[in-house]
Design goal:
Length: about 475
């Protein structure tokens, strides 16, 4: 039977000498992912009339799993071995309480909502990430990349670009258990300088920047002169040769095609370069976010969606002091860190940068079409554990209950949705599968979740097989 031709297949890869005509694109942007990062920028399907062409999402991902009972679902009446040392504090919305460690956030509860009753069934980091961000349970427990397309990749495929010269989907680094799956590398995010360790299950690595200083020697900088010096020219040739060998071995030549030339034009555009460059920002705004990794990351996220990016995902990693813990994510087992000292160390920075972003979105009128989401793959065990030899406290994985913080997006703010049991062990009111959050976001994008993609075997798979939008938000 003759092989069916793909009407979207492009003629083939660019010659390496043609690449040298590109201009001063940084080696990091090219060598890290010519196939998975550049093609994606332009491969989105034509948007349907129902798609909201202005809506965007900033996903601040607490990889490892943040503790719901210590942040947004506190249980002061629970036994000591459950409730922990932190006390709840009242917010500016009557009846809503959050941890005392977030005093700035407490003053703007009218600008965010908390969903306390989500759950799913996967307790592994990558398995939980795949489950939470795709809506499907994976076959493998500890998978490096997802078996189903995560929400950002779906958006990259289904939603049209707001601006031709910016990416549709941007991330700082890969998620452990995330990825485009059978949508292919064309729908992976553009990542300026990713670290492969972030998709390996490692929990000790430095936070990965999504921002740039704008200096000529900055690895994220895209040189406006469009001239490669001899040293960079040689590095680029070596990198392209290596990429070509890998692609040939994988049989994925079609992943490098004419989309790349358009992508390069996009990455060398003024709009994209300026979006990543924080030196373009008002110093007073930069000071409000804070001169920290989180502050600069979230400010860059705002600049990216303001420039037309539709989905930005950024890991909320934080380098603890060695005496506090050995991990840089939110996987606060007793063997990894003292969870309460870890939160006391990082929550002041979280409080500053997140409230700065929320204030900024509202001040610019972006709260109607930009949704900020803070969550991780699951919550933490309500029961405190002390497995470390020192006896320090920690909490383990807990997918039976979690809290999600949402701000903006044209949704109904100033409310708490759902309720968990007395010890925060499981939802007891408005019990919702985590797919309900995905369904809510897809609904705002105008993406129909009943529509199917075809996996690598040709089997049609709906975007979501279950889950309905959270009506209280809509």
């Amino acid at each position: 039977m003759p092989r069916r031709k793909n009407p979207r297949r492009c003629p083939g890869p660019l010659g390496r000498r043609e690449w040298l005509k590109i201009g001063g694109l940084s080696l990091g942007a090219l060598a890290v992912g010519a196939a998975p990062n550049l093609c994606q920028l332009l491969a989105a399907e034509p948007a349907s009339p129902a798609v909201d062409r202005d809506f965007s999402v900033i996903l601040f991902w607490a990889n490892g799993g943040p503790s719901h009972i210590d942040l947004f679902d506190m249980k002061p009446a629970a036994p000591r071995e459950y409730r922990g040392p932190f006390k709840p504090t009242a917010t500016n919305v009557s009846g809503i309480e959050i941890t005392e460690q977030l005093p700035r956030l407490a003053k703007m509860a009218d600008k965010f909502s908390i969903v306390r009753s989500l759950h799913h069934e996967r307790n592994e980091h990558s398995g939980g990430t795949n489950r939470f961000l795709t809506g499907y349970a994976s076959r493998a427990a500890n998978l490096a990349r997802s078996e189903f397309p995560m929400i950002g990749s779906v958006v990259a495929k289904k939603v049209g670009q707001s601006a031709f010269d910016v990416p549709t989907f941007v991330a700082n680094t890969p998620f452990y258990g995330g990825g485009p799956a059978y949508l292919g590398p064309a729908h992976a995010p553009y990542m300026p300088k990713p670290n492969p360790l972030t998709a390996s299950g490692a929990n000790r690595y430095d936070p990965v920047p999504i921002f740039t200083s704008g200096a000529d020697d900055d690895p994220l900088f895209i040189d406006s002169s469009g001239v490669l010096n001899l040293q960079r020219r040689q590095k680029l040739l070596t990198a392209i040769d290596e990429i070509s060998r890998q692609i040939d071995d994988a049989g994925a030549i079609s992943g490098i095609d004419e989309l790349q030339q358009r992508a390069v034009e996009m990455l060398t555009s003024q709009r994209t370069r300026k979006a990543f460059d924080l030196t373009q920002e008002d110093p007073k705004v930069r000071a409000r976010y804070g001169d920290t990794h989180w502050g600069k990351s979230l400010l860059t996220c705002r600049r990216l969606v303001q420039a037309g990016v539709r989905f930005v995902q950024c890991q909320a990693t934080f380098r603890l002091k060695p005496v506090t813990g050995r991990t840089s994510n939110w996987d606060d087992h007793s063997v990894n860190s003292d969870i309460f000292k870890a939160y006391q160390e990082k929550l002041p920075y979280f409080d500053q940068s997140v409230t700065a972003l929320i204030e900024d979105l509202y001040a610019r009128g972006m709260n109607q079409h930009v949704l900020f989401v803070f969550c991780g793959e699951f919550g933490r065990t309500p029961l405190i554990r002390n497995q470390h030899a020192s006896g320090r406290p920690g909490r383990d994985h807990w997918s039976r209950a979690m809290s999600v913080l949402l701000a903006g997006g044209g949704l109904q703010m100033g409310q708490v949705i759902g309720k968990t049991s007395r010890k925060a062990e499981e939802p007891i009111e408005r019990i919702m599968d985590s797919n309900c959050l995905l369904a809510t976001i897809y609904s705002r994008f105008g993406i129909e979740t009943a529509k199917s993609f075809f996996d690598n075997s040709g089997r049609p798979i709906p975007l979501l097989s279950s889950g309905t939008p959270i009506h209280e938000l809509l």
